[in-house]
Each structure stands twice: as structure tokens, then as C-alpha cells.
Amino acid sequence: MNRFATVFAVAILFMSCGDDYERVGEEAVKPLFPQGIAQNFTLTYTETVKSLGAQDSATSRVIAVLKSPLSEDFDNQRFKFKTFPEGLQVDFYDDEGKKSVVVSDYAIYYSQTNLIDLQGNVVIETHDGKKLETDQLYVDRKNNWIFTEATFKYTNPEDATVMDGEGMDFNTDFTFFKAHKTYGLMTIKEEE
To answer: How many C-beta atoms surround the C-beta of residue 87 within 10 A?
Structure first.
């Protein structure tokens, strides 16, 4: 009986010793591990000029080339995403083969929403010499829309303008451009 009482008392002692400590801050965050990592890679996106059937063949054209020293694939998460922690460069080609370039120090692509978040020294240079520089830029691939709330510098050599501002949005082919707030020196080429 005495042995039973001792075992019972020890069992109650262990059962009552629970971890009631509430984890907060960095302790509460569960670590995320990528399902895949790619290093020093080049990814080429192509498309065919016409729709193909099972037996058809046709030529394709390059529409974009993505280069990055590192990509981490988190498609194993509930909200899927890919990161480019060491930056990326994307060369885009239009229908005529003219190249525009996007670079950033860091990027994250949310595959379920088709949204890209570019961060740190983001630069877009179009084939016709237009240049946008900012610290953060979002690309909505579904709607072909680009936007930011950060400060920016936009240079357009066609009309010799340089615009500084804060917040802007535009379509991916730069035919519609809306700056939310502009300031500083703006150089405008005069007609002769």
C-alpha cells in the first residue's frame, strides 16, 4: 500500500507540472523551413505565338529571364510564397524583343495572390530609357499594375524630365502613370 501511495504521489506530481509559460515575441514564432532552395540560377519564361494541340509544333519567344543567386521556395506553407533573399534581376522582352530590366536587393513572390514585393534599391529601366528608382515596389501580375507608397525618382529621357515623389502607381507598359505626391526639382524640356 505504501508503495502504491508513493507511485500515485509521483504520478500526480508529474501530471501537475505543466508548461503554462506563454511564449511571446520571437519565442512564439515557429521557424519556417523552405521545401526547396535554388542557388545561382537562371529561369527563362517563354510563350508560343499560337495555341498548340497535342501534335502541333511552333516557335516560341522569350518573354522574361529571371536571375538570382538564391531562391527559397515556401510552397509547403498555408500561404505559399518564394523569397529571393540575395536579390534578383528580371529581363522582360516585349513583342518586338526590346528588353526592360528590373533589379532589387530582396524580393518575395506570393504565388496565391500573384503579388511581388521588391525591396531595397529597386530599379526599373525600360527599353526606351525610362528609369524608376525606389526602396520598395509592388507588382500585381494579375492586373499588370505596379505601385509603391515609398519615395521614388522617375527619369524620362523622352521629355527630359526628372521627378521626385512619394507614392505612385502605373501600368506595366508605362502608358499610365500617377504620382501621389511630387516635390523637389523637376526639369522639363521646353519646346523650341
So the answer is: 19
